[in-house]
Amino acid sequence: MSRRAAGPGRRLILVINPGSTSTKLAVFELRGSGAGGRGPGRGAGLKKGPRLLNERTVAHSAAELRGFRRMADQEPLRAGIIEEYLAERGVSLSDLAAVVGRGGLLRPLPGGTYRVNARMLRELRAARYGEHASNLGAMLAARVAKGASCPAFIVDPVVVDELAPEARLTGLPQIGRRSIFHALSQRAAARLACERLGVSYERAHLVVAHLGGGISVGAHRRGRVVEVNNALDGDGPFSPERAGTLPAGDLVRLVLSGRYGPDELKKLITGRGGLVAHLGTNSLIETLARSAKGEGRARLVFDALVYGISRSIAGATAALGRAPRAIVLAGAMARSKKLVAAISRRVGFLAPVMVFPGNLEMSALEAGAARALSGRERARSY
């Protein structure tokens, strides 16, 4: 695959973010250095770097995807959607300086921007580390980049693992802690916070919480996430859909009761826990509405949600060994002023609370590619 960098006429970055029921696409235009300058904290590239030209989300119905046995089999379907998107927007392959896709389930690796290579593609197509829609990100990026003769990247996949050695051990040598979390969102929010604070992410100490259908809370120490809960398996605070860390003895007794098989229990913990289990909804908005109408159970569950998130944030400060420069909240639930205010009341004494609500994934993917193109970050090899 050619490693041709941005040159005259090559001013666009294509971003590809495949989900289980959608494909999100965006085109950004490089401006200036393409990475937001060289001042402290500006490596984020999310605020003053390339600008968004257009984006589109294509939904995939269950019927459309039913015929595909494996995730990799969907590659031609989604590639056709990308071709249509580029044609509709009048984007030529010769316009592309880079293509960047969402990172999938790979082996544990340090955070950063990675060039897509043959080994990465082999492992993703074979689903060596698990099946997930995000596995398609690198495949699709490589496919388009090959035709465009430009680099293909992924940025901060969910398997980013920078845990401190002492954070990996549990009380049983047979079971170790794993780092699987919202790395892309957390790092993007952390970089934005550092940009606002006027400090370098690589020198900052932060606690970052991604608040969505799953919740992850990470301790960011000098550019590395040295402590974080395994959000994929539902570890940490409970969320709208995940059960969170559970008392071990009671979980064993639930298994021995025979009420749930292994697959059903996993779905209960990772998809039907949290707000869903307590209130029958995964909507924070509905939970707050029911609480406002006087439903005591909804109020208690909301308070417990806040308590669990706040306890995890406070615990993450111990991993830093010092007070954080800021506590950063990101993700869809960070749009809730009531949730943010309630968390801030509990943890605000530790550090200022900064909020970057919503989905940062598309801008974060573009920013990683822009940093690599500009030379501000050296792209890693898988």
List the main descriptive attributes of the protein structure presented here.
382 residues; alpha/beta; Nucleotidyltransferase, domain 5; 2 domains; six-stranded mixed β-sheet; five-stranded mixed β-sheet; 37% helix
Could you explain the architecture of this structure?
- The protein is α/β, with parallel strands linked by helices.
- It folds into 2 domains: 12-161 and 363-374, ATPase, nucleotide binding domain (Nucleotidyltransferase, domain 5, 2-Layer Sandwich), CATH 3.30.420; 165-357, ATPase, nucleotide binding domain (Nucleotidyltransferase, domain 5, 2-Layer Sandwich), CATH 3.30.420.
- It has helices at residues 62-65, 75-89, 118-125, 136-148, 165-168, 183-197, 248-256, 262-270, 274-279, 284-292, 296-320, 337-347, 361-374; strands spanning 12-18, 22-29, 51-59, 96-102, 113-115, 152-155, 205-211, 215-221, 224-228, 326-331, 353-357.
- Helix 10 crosses helix 11 (296-320).
Order of helices and strands: EEEHHEEHHEHHEEEHHHHHEHEH
From the N-terminal CA to the C-terminal CA, the straight-line distance is: 15 Å
In round numbers, the mean pLDDT is 91
Strand sequence of the main sheet, in spatial order? 3-2-1-4-6-5
Shape descriptor? globular
CATH architecture tag of the largest domain: 2-Layer Sandwich
The CATH topology of the largest domain: Nucleotidyltransferase, domain 5
The assigned structural class equals alpha/beta
Rg, Å, rounded: 21 Å
- Tell me the β content: 15-25%
Number of strands: 11
CATH class of the largest domain: Alpha Beta
Number of helices: 13
* Number of spatially distinct domains: 2
Profile the largest sheet: 6 strands, mixed
- The proportion of residues forming helix, as a percent range, comes to 25-40%
Contiguous runs where pLDDT drops below 50 for at least 5 residues: 1-7, 33-47
